[in-house]
C-alpha cells in the first residue's frame, strides 16, 4: 500500500515526521513517498501543487498531509499561494466529505478553556462539505462596482453556490455517519438570509426521507457557533457547508483542549482520502519543536481506518495516544499544572513506545 507523504510548511514537517515514525513502528509495511507541497512546492518547483506532487497524490492509496502556508507568501498572486495546494488537492481528488471528529480525551478536560463539566465526555463529528460553496464558486475577483451606492468604486466579490448533487452526496455521508452513532444529525445553514442555504436546507430535508431512523434538526450557523460553546454535548453529527464548517471546526477544536488535537479525513465517494490535522502551519511556533503532533498522528489512524482497511492498527494508535495522555505527557498547548511538558519529538517517542508496550 502506497501512502503519499506531503509535509508542507511551518510545523508541517515536524508533525508529519512523528506520524511517519508511528506508521513505521506498526507491524505493517507501507510504501511511503514524500513530495513538496505549499510554500515548499513553490520553492522547489515554482508552484504550490507541483505536477509530480499531484500525480503522486492521485496514484497513492492515501495521502498524509501536514499543513501549508506562511505569511511570507501572502503577497504572491493567489494561484501561487501555498493554500492553493490543499484546495487543489481537495478539488482534483474530489474529496468532498471532510470528517472532523471533536473528541475530548478525559485527561484533557482541564486543558480546554471551557469548564470541564461542559466538555467532559464530548464526542461529536463535524462533517464539512469540502469542494463547493464560496470557496470555489465563480465568478470572483475585484472589479468596478456595477451599480448601487458604490457604483464605479472597486469591489471584491465571491460567489456562494451549491449544486443539488453536491448537497445530496454530503447529506448521504452525514446521515450514514449519524446512523453509526447516536442517530442525530444537525444541518447547519443560514437559510434565513442566503438562497444557497435555503436550497441546502430543502435538499437535506428531502434526503432525510431515506433515513427515517435518524433525527434531523436544522440550526442557523450563528446559533450553532453559540451552542457549540454553550452545550456542545447536545450535538451528535453536524453537517454543513465548506465555509461554515471551516469556522465551526476550529471552534470545536478548543472543546478538545487544543487545535493540536483535532484530526481530519477528507474523502471521495470511494473512501480514498487525504488525512491532515485541522490546524494550519502555525508559523508562530514553527521550528521550535513544540507543536503538538497528536492531531496528525490521529489523522494517520483515521487513514488506516477509512482508506487502508486497517481498523485494528488504527485502534492501536488511538490507544497509544490515550496511554501517553494518561502518563501525563503534554505539549505546551495542552499543558496544565501537574503534567509533564514535552516537545514534538518526545511526544512522538512516547506514542511509538506506547505502541510497543
Ligand atoms: N490545511 C492547512 O494546511 C491549513 C489550515 C489552516 C491554516 N493554514 C495556514 O496556516 C497559516 C497559519 O494560519 P493560522 O495562524 O490562522 O492558523 P494555525 O492553525 O496555523 O494556527 C493558529 C494557532 O494555533 C496554534 N497551533 C496550530 N497547530 C498547533 C499544534 N499542532 N500545536 C500547537 N499549537 C498549534 C498556532 O501556534 C497558532 O497560535 C496560514 O498561512 C493559513 O492559511 C493551513
Ligand atoms: C488553509 C485553508 C485553505 C484551509 C481551509 O480554509 O479549508 C484550512 O483553514 C482548513 O481548515 O483546512
Ligand atoms: Mg480551517
From TrEMBL:
Q: What is its main location?
A: cytoplasm
Q: Where does substrate bind?
A: 90, 100, 128, 222
Q: Where does Mg(2+) bind?
A: 222, 246, 250
EC number(s) of the enzyme? Answer: 1.1.1.85
- Annotated Isopropylmalate dehydrogenase-like domain residues: 2-351
| UniProt remark on cofactor binding | Binds 1 Mg(2+) or Mn(2+) ion per subunit.
Task: List ligand-binding residues for NAD(+).
Answer: 280-292
One BP term from GO: L-leucine biosynthetic process
Which co-factor is required?
Mg(2+); Mn(2+)
Q: In which pathway does it act?
A: Amino-acid biosynthesis; L-leucine biosynthesis; L-leucine from 3-methyl-2-oxobutanoate: step 3/4
Source domain of life? Bacteria
Q: Which GO terms describe its molecular function?
A: 3-isopropylmalate dehydrogenase activity; magnesium ion binding; NAD binding
Its annotated compartments are: Cytoplasm
This enzyme catalyses: (2R,3S)-3-isopropylmalate + NAD(+) = 4-methyl-2-oxopentanoate + CO2 + NADH
- List the residue(s) that the UniProt entry marks as the site Important for catalysis: 135, 190
Q: Oligomeric state and partners?
A: Homodimer.
Cited function = Catalyzes the oxidation of 3-carboxy-2-hydroxy-4-methylpentanoate (3-isopropylmalate) to 3-carboxy-4-methyl-2-oxopentanoate. The product decarboxylates to 4-methyl-2 oxopentanoate.
Provide the family line: Belongs to the isocitrate and isopropylmalate dehydrogenases family. LeuB type 1 subfamily.
This chain's protein is named: 3-isopropylmalate dehydrogenase
Species in which this protein is naturally found: Noviherbaspirillum denitrificans
Phylogenetic placement of the source organism:
Bacteria, Pseudomonadati, Pseudomonadota, Betaproteobacteria, Burkholderiales
Amino acid at each position: 500500500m502506497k501512502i503519499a507523504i506531503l509535509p508542507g510548511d511551518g510545523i508541517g514537517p515536524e508533525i508529519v515526521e512523528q506520524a511517519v515514525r508511528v506508521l513505521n513502528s506498526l507491524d505493517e509495511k507501507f510504501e511511503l513517498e514524500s513530495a513538496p507541497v505549499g510554500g515548499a512546492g513553490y520553492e522547489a518547483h515554482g508552484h504550490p501543487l507541483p505536477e509530480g506532487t499531484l500525480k503522486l497524490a492521485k496514484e497513492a492509496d492515501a495521502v498524509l498531509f501536514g499543513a501549508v502556508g506562511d505569511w511570507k507568501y501572502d503577497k504572491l498572486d493567489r494561484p501561487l499561494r501555498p493554500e492553493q495546494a490543499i484546495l487543489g488537492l481537495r478539488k482534483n481528488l474530489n474529496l468532498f466529505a471532510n470528517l472532523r471528529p471533536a473528541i475530548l480525551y478525559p485527561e484533557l478536560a482541564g486543558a480546554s478553556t471551557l469548564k470541564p463539566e461542559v466538555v467532559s465526555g464530548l464526542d461529536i463529528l463535524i462533517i464539512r462539505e469540502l469542494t463547493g460553496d464560496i470557496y470555489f464558486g465563480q465568478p470572483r475577483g475585484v472589479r468596478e462596482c456595477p451599480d448601487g451606492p458604490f457604483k464605479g468604486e472597486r469591489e471584491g466579490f465571491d460567489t456562494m453556490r451549491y449544486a443539488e448533487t453536491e448537497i445530496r452526496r454530503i447529506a448521504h455521508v452525514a446521515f450514514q455517519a449519524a446512523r453509526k452513532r447516536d442517530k442525530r444529525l444537525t444541518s447547519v445553514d443560514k437559510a434565513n438570509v442566503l438562497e444557497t442555504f435555503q436550497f441546502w436546507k430543502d435538499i437535506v430535508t428531502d434526503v432525510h426521507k431515506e433515513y427515517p431512523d435518524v433525527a434531523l434538526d436544522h440550526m442557523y450557523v450563528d446559533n450553532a457557533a453559540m451552542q457549540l460553546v454553550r452545550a456542545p454535548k447536545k450535538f451528535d453529527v453536524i453537517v454543513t457547508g465548506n465555509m461554515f464548517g471551516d469556522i465551526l471546526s476550529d471552534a470545536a477544536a478548543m472543546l478538545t483542549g487544543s487545535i493540536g488535537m483535532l484530526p481530519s479525513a477528507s474523502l471521495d465517494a470511494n473512501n480514498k482520502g487525504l488525512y491532515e490535522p485541522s490546524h494550519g502551519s502555525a508559523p508562530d511556533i514553527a521550528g521550535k519543536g513544540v507543536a503538538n503532533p497528536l492531531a496528525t498522528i490521529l489523522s494517520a489512524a483515521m487513514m488506516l481506518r477509512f482508506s487502508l482497511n486497517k481498523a485494528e492498527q488504527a485502534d492501536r494508535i488511538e490507544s497509544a495516544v490515550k496511554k501517553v495522555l494518561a502518563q501525563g505527557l503534554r505539549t505546551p498547548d495542552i499543558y496544565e499544572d501537574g503534567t509533564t511538558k514535552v516537545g514534538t519529538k518526545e511526544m512522538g517517542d512516547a506514542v511509538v513506545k506506547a505502541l510497543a508496550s
